[in-house]
Design brief:
176 residues; globular; Rossmann fold; alpha/beta
């Protein structure tokens, strides 16, 4: 038929990323984007609560499903909040994403960047542990926490090769 296009299997595939306030772009997103031709990003506004972000995610998932898109992978990139309602809404977002993902091959990533405080990193791991129990038989749930960066930093970077200084001879030391 003129003007219509037959959908190929991958045409409607989507990788979805949800970015909480204070999160960073996860390293795994480029890798996941290779499995689907489309990427969709939902970023939490500074004035938006975690409950509002969760509700907006659910609406967006319904829109994608209605448009016959298939979410083949998703990333929840966590911010620094430790509030109890954030934990609950992260769990609800993981649950909503898991229900929408392709069951056999879907991949769901909980990501945390290297600058997050240790308490926030532990909270993200707690979400992963809690939700892993509920997602048995569904899409895979992966926890990707970037290693924390050390607080010790050198003011001058080390050269790649050692620098050889000429030895000072005893006669030169006396003049110096």
């Amino acid at each position: 038929m003129a003007g219509t296009h037959a959908k190929t299997e991958k045409t409607g595939d989507v990788v979805l990323i949800v970015m909480e306030f204070g999160s960073r772009w996860p390293a795994c997103f480029q890798e996941l984007l290779r499995s689907a031709p489309h990427g969709v990003v939902l970023a939490q506004d500074v004035t938006e609560t975690s409950a509002e972000l969760s509700a907006r995610l659910k609406r967006r998932l319904m829109q994608l499903t209605a448009a016959e898109h298939h979410v083949c992978a998703a990333v929840l990139s966590a911010g620094h909040s430790l509030a109890h309602d954030v934990f609950v809404n992260r769990c609800l977002m993981v649950q909503a994403l898991a229900r929408t993902l392709t069951p056999a091959s879907g991949r769901l990533v909980l990501a945390g960047h290297s600058q997050l405080p240790e308490a926030a990193r532990q909270e993200i791991a707690r979400v992963a542990a809690t939700m892993a129990e509920h997602l048995v038989g569904g899409p895979s749930l992966v926890l990707e926490l970037e290693p924390p960066k050390s607080g010790v930093r050198r003011a001058v970077p080390r050269p790649a090769t050692p620098i050889a200084f000429p030895a000072i001879q005893p006669a030169e030391r006396a003049r110096a």
